[in-house]
Design goal:
By secondary structure, this protein is of the alpha/beta class. It has a single domain, classed as Glutaredoxin, CATH 3.40.30. The protein contains four helices and five strands, in the order E-H-E-H-E-H-E-E-H. A five-stranded mixed sheet has the order 1-3-2-4-5, covered by helices on one side. It is globular and about 30 Å long.
Length: 104
């Protein structure tokens, strides 16, 4: 299951030694619901190797503002606490897997 990420735990989670993937989403967003099963699959498949999480943009404005999140879904990829890649919009699972494999 994907980890719930909030303004409060964001810094702690991205500063781990793992690759961190964050799905910025909202309940009312159709494309966000489209990629939700992909995010959950990745959380299961990469458990122990990467942290896969979801951040609700309506409840966590600070992180959204910090990273200039204007469109959702946006998926950010972090390594060693640094933003290294992103996907904006509803992508295919293969695109997410390729980026993850490249960071592991």
């Amino acid at each position: 299951m994907a980890t719930t990420i909030t303004d409060a735990n964001f810094k702690e989670l991205i500063s781990s030694n793992k690759v961190v993937v964050i799905d910025f989403w909202a309940e009312w967003c159709g494309p966000c619901r489209q990629i939700a099963p992909i995010v959950e699959d990745l959380a299961t498949e990469y458990e122990g190797r990467a942290l896969i999480g979801k951040l609700d943009v309506d409840e966590n404005q600070d992180v959204c503002e910090q990273y200039g999140i204007r469109n959702i879904p946006t998926v950010l990829f972090f390594k060693d606490g640094e933003l290294v890649d992103k996907i904006v919009g509803a992508g295919q699972k293969t695109a997410f897997v390729e980026k993850l494999k490249g960071l592991l």
